[in-house]
Amino acid sequence: MRIIADRTVCAGHGMCEALAPDFFRVGADGIAAPVADTAAAEPELLELVVDSCPVQALRLA
Hints:
Number of strands: 4
Largest sheet: 2 strands, antiparallel
Shape: globular
Strand content: 15-25%
Distance between the termini: 6 Å
Radius of gyration: 10 Å
Strand order of the largest sheet: 1-4
Oligomer: single chain
């Protein structure tokens, strides 16, 4: 299981980085991106990160 980030939807709120800093970073452009293989994360953490995105830019695959 991994998270797909839609960079065209991301508004840079940083909830993903706040909840899973080992897996996400908000870049200088203000857009979040995965920085590590999220498959290593606990499924509960991935679900929390996806559910916490205020603009629904994340989905599980």
